[in-house]
Design goal:
homodimer, 121 residues, alpha+beta, Arc Repressor Mutant, subunit A, two-stranded antiparallel ribbon, 5 helices, 5 strands, elongated, disordered N terminus, transcription regulation (chains A, B), transcription (chains A, B)
Chain lengths: 121, 121
């Protein structure tokens, strides 16, 4: 294990975003800027085997199946998740390349810098 | 310098978010889920000295001053930026602790794991 001391700030705060990049990032952010969709994304990503049946997701919320389906569709349209129908149910999984675009914009620096140190523990 | 090989996925995709955490994170995400606000945030964070005069920000957009002020207020209300009036103008700066909450949710793993290695360069 290693402790990583990070310096301020996220890439988004280190150089001006272009209009195009800002527009693309805003589409992803709008898709996740909802408590139900954030919880759905976290439940799908952390589910055993890396995918979750829509039946499990719907049972976890006090919401109707059509409402859950709407939120899943928003996440899927943004490219954050994908799904396959197998038998009765659709199984959803995270698309890490797309989720990681959010991480790339907001992650603190990970490369070493004068005020960053990697410390073996 | 060190190369960091990261594994999939973001923390948000590794364990289910609580309702409370999801609600708090959604407030921050809604504040940044707009192309103009993303560009404002990146311009403030990357400005010389770590702060930007509202006069510089307004000049960079083909938008009215009240529209820019509205977007700055949304960012400020969410706690992502703060501002001080000095003379005629307000000067804005990033609040890194709050911006980094977004990074913490979406950043890929940084701690070592079986498929992660830290390589001195």
């Amino acid at each position: 294990m290693a402790a990583v001391t990070i310096q301020c700030c996220a890439p988004i705060a280190r150089e001006p975003l272009s209009e195009t990049d800002a527009a693309e990032l805003a589409v992803l952010l709008k898709a996740v800027a909802d408590p139900v969709r954030l919880r759905l994304l976290s439940m799908i990503g952390s589910h055993a085997g890396g995918e979750a049946c829509v039946c499990d997701l719907t049972d976890a919320f006090d919401l109707t199946a059509p409402t859950i389906s709407h939120h899943l569709k928003v996440l899927r349209t943004a490219g954050l998740i994908d799904g396959d129908r197998r038998g009765t149910w659709v199984y959803y999984r995270i698309i890490p390349e797309v989720v990681n675009k959010l991480g790339a914009a907001f992650a603190p620096l990970t490369e070493p810098a004068p005020n960053l140190e990697l410390t073996p523990v």
